[in-house]
Design brief:
Blueprint (H helix, E strand, L loop, with lengths): L2 E5 L3 E5 L5 E6 L2 E4 L4 E4 L3 H18 L6 E4 L4 E5 L2 E2 L2 E8 L2 H7 L6 E11 L8 E2 L1 H6 L5 H24 L2 E12 L5 E4 L7 E5 L9 H4 L5 H13 L1
Antiparallel strand pairs: 1-2, 2-3, 3-7, 4-5, 6-7, 8-12, 9-10, 9-12, 10-11, 12-13, 12-14
Helix pairs in contact: 1-6
Thymidine-5'-phosphate binds next to helix 2, strand 12 and strand 14.
């Protein structure tokens, strides 16, 4: 039996018979600019469910705990129940998106080392960027948890960069969310997909991610399908 719990912009969450597990349903809905722009990307839910599970399994196998339990259908997975820490972690390898705009630097500039930044997960405020010191000072998580999140995020960057490169994709940047289980363990939650990463073709620099939707570049479905194909077909 499943009981509806919450609907986000790209996913729905249901309770399951197991009090420690939720069911996640991936929708085709796409939003950008804090949901001011809305649309549908055909089969995005299926692609993101499968890709996210693929990456979470690799991350878990490298010793970083994740919420992934099992895939139960094209669009549905069982995940561990967590309380989401309201911090969006953004790791960047090359300049793009909001960093390019804020700093006045061309997209594609290679950073001398990966950067990590934090946004407050709050739709009403439009997920504002925070100084690192806000996270613990505001009580969004403990100092220990923050250190764990930072360590895991940088490790995940190395794992993902390597995996993407095997598929001839450059990992430009990505966003992670972490949660806490009932036994107080920090684990990776939410998703890793073309919705939450910038992925450029290694040969052509073609954008293979949600920027195609955000910027009306066309062939959004084709780009998502291409990413799926490079990993899972
Ligand atoms: P940004 O350059 O717009 O700050 O985005 C950085 C990365 O975070 C990019 O890979 C897209 C991802 N992202 C999300 O997953 N959700 C969001 O709401 C935003 C703004 C970005």
């Amino acid at each position: 039996m499943t009981e509806f719990l919450y609907e986000g912009k790209a996913k729905k969450i249901f309770k399951t018979d197991n009090p420690e597990e939720y069911l996640v349903y991936f929708k085709d809905d796409a939003t950008a600019f804090n949901a001011q722009k809305k649309g549908t990307v055909l089969e995005k839910g299926i692609i993101n469910n499968k890709l996210s599970n693929y990456f979470f399994k690799i991350i878990e196998s490298r010793g970083i705990p994740t919420h992934f339990v099992r895939e139960i259908s094209d669009r549905e997975s069982i995940v561990k129940k967590v309380k989401i820490i309201p911090v969006e972690v953004i790791v960047r390898n090359k300049v793009a998106g909001s960093m390019a705009k804020r700093m006045g630097i061309d997209e594609g500039f290679i950073l001398k080392y990966p950067t990590i930044e934090f946004s407050y997960k709050n739709d009403e405020l439009g997920d504002p960027l925070m100084a690192d010191s806000y996270v613990v000072a505001l009580g969004l998580c403990s100092d220990d948890d923050f250190n764990t999140i930072k360590k895991y995020s940088m490790q995940i960057n190395e794992i993902l960069k390597e995996e993407m490169l095997k598929a001839e994709i450059i990992l430009i940047d990505f966003k992670l969310e972490f949660g806490k289980t009932s036994d107080d363990t920090i684990i990776l939650a939410d998703e890793i997909s073309p919705d939450t990463c910038r992925l450029w073709d290694a040969k052509t620099n073609e954008k293979l991610d949600k920027d195609r939707f955000r910027r009306d570049l066309g062939n959004v479905e084709g780009a998502y399908k291409e990413v799926l194909k490079r990993f899972l077909q």
